[in-house]
Amino acid sequence: MTKIKDNTTDQTLCPVARAETVVGDRWTVLVLRELFAGSYRFEEIQAQTGGTPQMITARLKKLEADGLVTRQVYNKRPLRHEYHLTEKGEAFFPVLMALR
């Protein structure tokens, strides 16, 4: 019987594995879809995805930490932000379209 090699280290270096850790869940893909469609404000993204505020906040923070999204203030009182795709984030568009 052939023993399966443990590729844990190789997977962390693999671009496909890294991409899966960034956008590997439904809510992240939906948030990206809305950003590609032109929804930049939190309330718009939440309304269009149907996610809870906590879930959308967590996904936006992760996308920002991964360098796919930037956050910009658009209103100081009350404090409100817009989210925009970075060049790296825009590079995911063909991948998202391929999943249609």
TrEMBL record:
InterPro entries: HTH_HxlR, WH-like_DNA-bd_sf, WH_DNA-bd_sf
Keyword Transcription regulation attached: yes
Xref: SUPFAM superfamilies: Winged helix' DNA-binding domain (SSF46785)
PANTHER family, sorted: TRANSCRIPTIONAL REGULATOR, MARR FAMILY, TRANSCRIPTIONAL REGULATORY PROTEIN
A UniProt-annotated Pfam family: HxlR
UniProt entry keywords in alphabetical sequence: DNA-binding, Transcription, Transcription regulation
Domain of life: Eukaryota
GO molecular function terms noted in the UniProt entry: DNA binding
Domain HTH hxlR-type, chain residue ranges per copy: 14-100
Protein name per the record: HTH hxlR-type domain-containing protein
